[in-house]
Amino acid sequence: MCGIVGLLVKNPAMRGRLGELMVPMLEEMASRGPESAGLAVFTDRLPETDRKYSLYAPAWDYDWAPFEADFIKRFGTEAQMAVKGNHAVLTCDEPADAVKAWTRQNYPALHVLSAGRRIDIYKDIGHPADIAKRYDFPKLTGTHVVGHTRMATESAVTPDRAHPFTAGEDFCLVHNGTISNPFMVRRKLEHRGIRFETDNDTEAATRFLEWRTREGDTLEQALRKGFEELDGFYTFLIGTDNQLALVRDAFACKPAIVAETDDYVAISSEFRGLAHLPGVNDAKLFEPMPEELYVWTV
Amino acid sequence: MDSLAIEKRTTMDKTFDLAKASVRELNQFLHHDLAGSGIKHIDVLNPNGSHSIAVGVNHAVDIDIRGQGGYYVGGMNKFANITVHGNVGWGVAENMMSGSVRVKGFASESAGATGHGGTLIIEGDASLRCGISMKGIDIVVGGRVGNYSAFMAQAGRLVICGDAGDALGDSLYEAVIYVRGKIKSLGADAQQEPMTAADHAAVAELLKRAGFPYDPTEFKRVASARSLYHWNADANQEY
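Above: the input entities. Below: the structure tokens describing the complete assembly.
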């Protein structure tokens, strides 16, 4: 069991309250996944040439100064670091491939959790309510957010195996369920030079779908290929630069409910995750059907 | 009316506000304190999708749940008449023995699962696996039902006023399904059969119980072909 939550704010006036509205959703779904949690928030878009990277360090009191100094020395560029304990967001004008490869080689203890122009990721082990407090989730602002509470089935309970998983740029996925052919998917992708960072089944699904979008599929086409290639049980919630997408497998044994109003679209594994949202009892409430695509654009 | 009568009337009702009391307190009241209390009606406020509201009730009492229920609303119910003024999550009225559960909105998966008796009425749609393994319960759905409904259903009636999804009645035993709308596909060993006068009467009675205005002659009957009842060595594991 896991909990998934998502919120896309249509009303620009509510963007400043994204985190405040999201945190009770995450906390309510903690009983479905009490051991780790995370979220991806999509903030203001950086200029075309800039990128930001969410980084994870193994200790809360990690000293980020040597990393920052070495990074600037190596790339000879300006870089900004926003540090929150064991997480940091590095903003610079260097491409993802170079930053990821250099970090892996020189700071192997660090994980690059995400790359893009809009996405920030925070994920960690512990109770979701503690994690929300640890990273000031109530203060987050932006257009959309994707969150997860984890009860592990397929790989160890570690921060890098918590959700959301990311691939490419501004692409993340959270998953309730189990993929039964992750290693087949992985072998297929590794032959194409796609690198995996964990042994987690959800990472295989994330990298498969992101690879399809890079090959020219729309998100909808990629998700339809996913119905054929990804075997197992899943409710997926996917966040991209400007979209939220929700799908369930053919057996649909992992739950989800959607509440849509003029102001927002909210997704949760269960209604109790939505109960606190303003106007939810007058919202259009529905359950996503198996193998149907539900996509919302910012 | 004398003061004693007024006192008596007001003590026949009770309200549980789940914003203030826990579901456990509500259910403990229903299990241990309701009997002999004279209370005939209970309002449950602010359910907000909580699980296991009014499960295991063992007394004749009317319960109105004013909002959205979570999982297992009215599970194992005996004698109570429970109304949910909203939608419910998974397993509403699961393993119900008698009494009734009415859902004014839609029901999520496995509505009425393994129910032995009583009536489950869903005014909106029911999701996948409605009536899975039902064992004598009557279920009337005002809208459509999702895939795999009445899977391995053993006894009771499932009335579907809307459409049915894939694999309706897969591996059906002796439960009978009545469908007014389209059937996307039948499951293994489920077959459509002619409606008899007894079927029309049964549907009319169930629709009346639910308060739905449809004509019984619009319904189709689906029941077991009973070809899976006995091992067939020649089937080579293909059914």
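Note for the figure: The interface with chain A takes residues 48-51, 67-68, 70-71, 86-87, 89-90, 105-106, 108-109, 127-128, 146-147 of chain B (CB under 8 Å).
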